[in-house]
Design a protein that fits this description.
four-stranded antiparallel beta sheet; 2 domains; binds zinc ion
C-alpha cells in the first residue's frame, strides 16, 4: 500500500531513506548538537575566565531537545525517553525569550552611543542621564 504524508513519507521511507536509518541519523545528530552546547559553554567560560552561558547554548539546547523529542515520539516510542524530553524545551525557549527581550530593551546613550543595561539610569561610560523606559 502506497502512503504519502506531508510529502516526506512514502512506503515506510522518509526523504527517500529507510525509516530506521533516518531516525538513527536524527538521534545521532541530536546527540552531537546536545553535546556541542557544553563545548560552546565551556569555551565561553574559559575565554571570559568566569562562568558564562552564551545564547548559542540555549539555541543548541532547544534544537537538541526538540530533535530528541521527535526521535523519542516517532522512533524510540518509549515513555521514559519521551518524558525525559517532553518538557526540557520550555526553559530553553523561555531563556531565549528573556535574552532577546533584555537585548532589545537595552538603552543607547545619546552622548557617546554606549549600550547600557535596561535598568541603568546613567551611562556607564560617560555618566550622561539615559532615557526613561518607554521614552525615545
Ligand atoms: Zn554615554
Amino acid at each position: 500500500m502506497h502512503t504519502q504524508t506531508l510529502g516526506i513519507l512514502a512506503d515506510g521511507q522518509i526523504l527517500g531513506m529507510d525509516r530506521e536509518i533516518f531516525w538513527t541519523m536524527i538521534g545521532w545528530l541530536a546527540n552531537a548538537i546536545f553535546t556541542s552546547r557544553f563545548l560552546v559553554q565551556w569555551y565561553a567560560t574559559e575565554k571570559r575566565k568566569e562562568v558564562t552561558v552564551p545564547v548559542l547554548f540555549w539555541w543548541l539546547s532547544l534544537a537538541g531537545a526538540l530533535m530528541f523529542l521527535s526521535y523519542a515520539v516517532n522512533y524510540d516510542r518509549h515513555h521514559v525517553f519521551i518524558f525525559a524530553y517532553a518538557f526540557t524545551w520550555i526553559p530553553y525557549l523561555r531563556n531565549l525569550v528573556i535574552h532577546y527581550r533584555h537585548k532589545n530593551a537595552q538603552k543607547v546613550c545619546a552622548q557617546c552611543s554606549q549600550t547600557c543595561s535596561p535598568k541603568a539610569i546613567y551611562c556607564q561610560s560617560c555618566g550622561a542621564k539615559l532615557p526613561e523606559p518607554g521614552m525615545a
